[in-house]
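Two quick folds needed for the group meeting slides. Do the first one here.
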Amino acid sequence: MSSFQASWQLQNATANSLGLRKSGDKMGIPTIFILFLIFLFIFHHNLKKTEKLTAIKRKEFWENEEKSMFTRKSQIEDTNYIVPDISGVKHNNKEYFAELGHPELFKYQELIFSLSKEPMLNLSNMSNSEIRLKYGIANFSHIEACENNYNRLIKAIYLLGKGYFDLENYSEAISVLEAGIKINSDISDHILLLAELYAKKKDSFNFNELKIYSENLESLTKSKLSNGFIDLKKRYFI
């Protein structure tokens, strides 16, 4: 029986016992008052329950934080490190981009090739305390550096891909942006830009594959991605 049904039966029983309602009578002011009291009781009960759960979670959080500060160093498995595949990214010289009027793209390109040789990790699905508990406090600064390498790389890949897109060099833009997807970039603008490139080519297969990829991301921008794919589908495929 739901809380609403229980409350309603309690209200009826109370009203009848107090003679507040006769058969066929409409709900009177005393009955409304009783319902209000019942509502306050249920609200107070749920509030206390929520506060108790919050207190338990807060206690668990600080216990994990304290424990993580004393966790011994643990080996980071080689399989956790990301090895970017940038074989599809052309290595153009500085003059090439200068002639295009976008010398800043050379900087992004060089950053991609440089960072691809550095150790990198993507542990965005773990909290800081979870990372320390698993790998130890002594590894934390190394992990932070590896995560920074990863985040800088996916940003540089997006910026170079966007640069090629703006220059209408769509084939190069696709090659660059696909390198980011291979290492699980979750930058929404990156994903939607690549989706638009597929849509321009009427490449429904890769468009749909990328849509599935976006739906499986643990991202706060899922709504933006979903709306973006809907808009692109309307513009290019319907």
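Then this one, please, same format:
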Amino acid sequence: MQLSTRTISSVLMLTGLMFIGTQAFAEARIIGGTQVSEATQDESYPWITALLINGQASCGASLIGTQWVLTAAHCVTNEETGVALSASNYSVVVNDYDLGTSSDGESRTVTEVYVADGYDTVTLDNDIAILKLSSTVTSAPITLMSSSDFNALSDGTSLKVMGWGNTSINRDIYPNILREVNVDYANFTTCKNQYAAIGAAVTDNMFCAGGNGQTDSCQGDSGGPIMQLVDGTYQQVGIVSTGGTQDQSCAALNYPGIYTRLSNYQSWISSVMAGNETPGTRSDDESNVKDNEAIGSTSSGSSSGSLGGVFFMLMLSGLWGARKRRVSV
């Protein structure tokens, strides 16, 4: 998530809380990885997708149906309320490899934005969104991992994450060419306790991977897939969301990356793709929105926003920060 400025009093209150053993999570990138070859991308990763805000690369995504793309909620929502921004802000390039080549991949605009019930702009719980594309694409979608297969994952299982995010923990180095890195599935209880000690919640809708201090996802990789190779086919396990500490936002030793657990959302994903969810509706009334502005949380409801612009945040240490690349619009 990325928090924007609210009132001066709210900022002062939050700032005071931030210094009590807390951390700022940053936007995600591939750290310690390698460049993917174009042949490998075409053959093995045809579902990899770049999400653009007003034409500028911001997040990753994955193709899950011929007209549907999966990404992180914090990539497509208002930072304060969690309400989805206007679909007109977004476009995608499916089967993308080189961000610097306009002819690469299948470009589509976005017509509808859906955000999962209970998305929380502070904790990044339920950090998942689905985008409907303006028309179908020919690229093959990725398979989503089932609950039973996810539950069978053991600590140390090798997973792969990829994207166009920053490759440095010291400065901004954003590559045009797709990169990938292997990270190990981390013990959930250990990860949860580690983050709890610095004031961050890791919920049952999340899982952890990495933490060796050398490899990670970070700024620009938000919304992209983390997956496992199963019998020669990649299955998407989760979505890049957040992680890191105040001192080191990515590849922080003993602080794994945090990912959205897809197996918890199978029925919702199916419902959206079947046309059973209505974009543009929310359950929160005006008073709830005001409460959200005061405490930084969001109400439940699938939503497609009508806001005309992209809102950028003032990062406040001690609160969750999403792994989304900042772009100027």
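Slide caption for protein two: Helices lie at 8-18, 38-44, 147-151, 188-196, 266-273, 286-295.
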